[in-house]
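Subject: Re: docking follow-up (zinc ion)

Dear J.,

Thanks for your patience while I sorted out the input files. As discussed at Tuesday's group meeting, I've set up the holo structure prediction with zinc ion included as the bound ligand rather than trying to dock it afterwards. The sequence and the ligand SMILES I used are pasted below, so you can double-check that they match what you have on your end before we go further.
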Amino acid sequence: MNSPDVVLRGGRVIDPETGLDDVRDVAITGQQITEIGCGLLPAAIDVDVSGQVVTAGFIDLHSHTNEIPGLRLRVLDGVTTAFELEAGAVPVDHAYRHAGAEGRPVNYGFATSWALARLEAVAGLEVTNNLDFLGNVATPAFQQAASPAQLRAIVDRLAADLSEGAIGIGLLLGYSPGTDPGEYLRVAALAADAGVATYTHARDLIEQVPDTLIDGAEEIVRAAAQTGARMHYCHINSTSLRHIDRVLDLVGRAQAAGSRITTEAYPYGSGMTGIGAAFLAPDRLHERGLTPPDLTYAPTGEQVPSTDRLRELRTANPAGLAIIRLLDENDPADRAVLMRSLTFPDAVVASDAMPLTWPGSVPDPMAWPLPPGAVTHPRTVGTYTRALRMLASDVESGGPVGEFGPLGLTETLRRCSLLPAQLLEDHVPAMRCKGRLQAGCDADIVVFDPAAIADRATYADSTLTSVGITHVLVNGTFVVRDTGLVTTALPGQPVRARPR
Ligand SMILES: [Zn+2]
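The structure tokens for the complex came back this morning:
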């Protein structure tokens, strides 16, 4: 028998699917895990990982960071696959070709984009790779109802992308409050026909906007029941806020009745989006209990002082990203609200990772360490290590006492790897070999020190990388080795749905 390429020797191997949690060696040959056992044959690369946890790499269903520099920050947080499913891409094949031509440190995949299809059909824009997406969704032309002919054009565009292997349909519904609820139902029906899921940024809740066309949570539940589509409720934490109990109760009852609704959350109290977003209009801030100083404008770092300045920034650069203080992580009541989203049964951990904002021109994508000055939301950099620290009861992170979590380590890891794989695997066959630490599965592996693992990125210093991630392999190739990034490694592969 040939010796394996790599053996990770003597680590605490955790596989949430089989329940394995014991000391084992893990052998890797080529891109696969070939054997898990004790006393395995030596390998050319034989790495002592005693005292470390060895588990499947984290699978992010919600990443808007799709370029090499941001993805490298993500690898150092344990991510091995990053999907852009909420905003999505159009044409989806261009997104795959762009990523494939440059190479990526992690596996990648895209949904098709209702918002981009809508910009094309309703606002009359030409959709290209360089389209200023957040800048354009801020325009009233995007936010109006579609005519029957425009709706047909949207559906045709989405269907064309699905036939090219798009993983699902992303719907930034919350950015287009004028959308007819019938349009959402039509797109959900398309997803049901195609056997893929929708990924929705929900419309406003009725508690926030009493005259909304339909309550955002009820709209998802209704569409799931009416069409039978699988519907993923994106960042349920940040759209539900202090109404989380009502929303989770509704979702839970719909799930119990057989609707195929899934949820995700990220472990931060603040959000981030383009400052021109519909729900950040000066006369609408109060709907979420916000005032201008709750916004920090990322390109300059300024806390927005006044309504006038907010108006100015929205006009000058609607796509400019702003941190939005939604829940106060230091307030116990708000923190409990956040925890309810994260600990909801089968809620996936997903980051909503944001693109990096650079102070000047965008640097060489391969430059590492990152040139100084980039700004993002800390969730881009620290979601998974932070989730482990907040949720897992047996991670000894050195964080504040009392922070250690309500879930076991295996259950927390399940929400970071196995569950997202399972959400996709019936229509994305490649996912059956991901999210698991088992022989025959892809060697997408994270090795971490349970005593040291922690996020470090903050709102003030948002690109500080996580600590405690010792090794990361993607398709059998080290992308992080001995806590350092392997700067030449771009082993990520495209993941597509099974074409119809
Ligand atoms: Zn969103």
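A couple of observations from a first look. Residues 177 and 341 are 24 Å apart (CA to CA). Residues 86, 201, 234-235, 352 surround zinc ion (CB under 6 Å).

Let me know if you'd like me to rerun anything.

Best regards,
T.
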